[in-house]
Design a protein that fits this description.
Strand content: 5-15%
Structural class: mainly alpha
CATH class: Mainly Alpha
Helix content: 40-55%
Shape: globular
Radius of gyration: 12 Å
CATH topology: Arc Repressor Mutant, subunit A
Strand order of the largest sheet: 1-2
CATH architecture: Orthogonal Bundle
Number of domains: 1
Largest sheet: 2 strands, antiparallel
CATH superfamily: Winged helix-like DNA-binding domain superfamily/Winged helix DNA-binding domain
Amino acid sequence: MKYRDNRSANIFAFICRYTARYGFPPTLEEIARDEGFKSNSGVLRHLDKLEKWGWIERYHGNARSIRILRPCAGAASEDTARSSRQFVPRR
């Protein structure tokens, strides 16, 4: 699968890995921290792209409201830059 935007693809792969590991989607802050954003606005732009492409669905105004619409099978393997990175959620 060829991605149109590598940063958005990395975010999608992170959402897939996080959801598979914890059973619920990450927050904007968790995505921002993983991708190195200083604020949530950059994350929101990429989530808007993913939603426009039909990869995810969001319920605006709700926390952890990302729903994955596209199969994640290839997402984790194609995210080579962060495949070995361990993420620990903040409690």
